[in-house]
Structures are given as structure tokens and as C-alpha cells.
Amino acid sequence: MTLQQKPMAIREEVAALKRTRIIAATVELFYEKGYDKTTLEAVAERLGVTKPFIYSHFNSKADLLADICARGISASLDAIESVKELDASPTDRLELLGKRFVTAVLENQMYIAIFTREEKGLTTTDLNKINTMRRTFDRELTALITEGVAIGEFRVINPHLAALSIGGMVSWAYVWFRSSGQMTIEETANEMTALILAMVNVKHSLS
């Protein structure tokens, strides 16, 4: 890294940290009060900054909403991309995906709750982008299940329906999971992954 590149990298890191702070404060307010009742003035007040500070990183409240709503599905996409090219059997990849997918949903619980409640506030363009990501996830999961069926590891009549069912089950976990409950995120991920493998009738036991 050259001397010129180093200050640029530092500036980018600082900007990313500022955006993260803004998002965190906005998530709290959207979750507590709702999108319509939250103003950028309230976000600035919670952060202890001025409104221009927010505008230097986000164009509008709608821009913040779009970023927040995309985070849950983006984390889920990262999970499936992380296992796609692994040199492993479909069963092993689905097991690893299950754990990472559940973890992504539970670690982004508030983001997903906000998306579910405030989807109507998204612009058509932003909603289309999120729906495209969701369809990509469904397509990748269908492909993984189809591969497992083709080599005899899974017994599923309709891989696409199985993928949608798995996605629905895991995505709904944001509603009932409580960090103060009896199970940790890791324990919940392990239990739900066993259910995922059962749904595709995997032929051999967990590793």
C-alpha cells in the first residue's frame, strides 16, 4: 500500500464506521417507534450529532430504510455464497449453510423485523433489489438441493418447494427467537439445521 493509498483506506474505514453508527441508531428508533414516526432529527439527537452529519452518508430517511431492509437477506446471501464453491458433499454444504443461514437471520433479527413491518415504505427500485436478492437465494438453495437429489443424497420430489419451505422456516425464526431464552444462537442454529436436513431426507447422519 502506497502512502497515498493508506490515507484513502483510513478515510474509507472511518466513513464505514460512521455509517455503521448511523445505521445502529436508526435501527433502534425504527424498531421502537416505527419508520413513519422516526425523524432524521431524532436519529441525529440519539447520536449526538447534527442532521448534516447524517446527510453526508445517507441521502434520505428512505435511503436508510433501504439499507436496513437489505441487510437480513444480504447476510443470508453471504451464507449461501460461502458454501457454494466448497469441495464438499451437498449434505455437508447444506449442513454448513443451515448453521450460517440461521445465524444470519438471528443476528439480524431487528433488521428483518423492520423490513417486515416497513416494506411499504421502500421505493419500488429498492424493493425490487431486495426481491431480486431473495430470488437469488431461493435459486441457489434449489440448485444445492437438486444436486443432492441427483447424486442420491437427498430424497425430495420438488427441490424448489423444499428450498422455499426451508427459507420460510428459518426466516420466521426472527419472530420467536429471544436472546434471553433457553437456547443460544449457536444452539438454535444446530437444532434448526437438523430440521433442514430432515426436510430433504438426507441419507446419512450429521458429521
What does this structure look like?
The chain has 2 domains: 58 residues, Orthogonal Bundle (Arc Repressor Mutant, subunit A); 147 residues, Tetracycline Repressor, domain 2 (Orthogonal Bundle). The chain is 74% helix and 0% strand. The chain contains 10 helices and no strands. The longest helix is centred in the N-terminal third of the chain and has 29 residues. It is elongated. 29% of the residues are buried.
How do the helices and strands line up, and which of them pair or pack?
Layout: H1 5-33, H2 40-47, H3 51-55, H4 61-84, H5 90-107, H6 109-118, H7 124-150, H8 159-171, H9 173-176, H10 185-199
Helix pairs in contact: 1-2, 1-6, 4-5, 4-6, 4-7, 5-7, 5-10, 7-8
Sum up the overall morphology in one term: elongated
The biggest sheet, with number of strands, parallel, antiparallel or mixed sense and barrel status, is: none
Q: Structural class from helices and strands?
A: mainly alpha
* Total DSSP E strands: 0
CATH topology of the largest domain: Tetracycline Repressor, domain 2
Radius of gyration: 20 Å
Features:
Tetracycline Repressor, domain 2; elongated; 2 domains; mainly alpha; 207 residues; 0% strand; Arc Repressor Mutant, subunit A
